[in-house]
Amino acid sequence: QTTLAAVSISELKGVIELLSNDKPVPYLGLRISTVTDEIAEDYHMPKGVYVRDVALDSPAMEAGFQSGDVITAINDTSVSSMSALKSVLSGMNPGDSVKLTVCQANKGYKQSQVDVVLGEVKDDDKAQNSQSEEEETPEEHEEQGFQQMLPTPRQ
Question: What are phi and psi of 64, to 5 degrees?
Answer without folding.
Answer: 95, 15
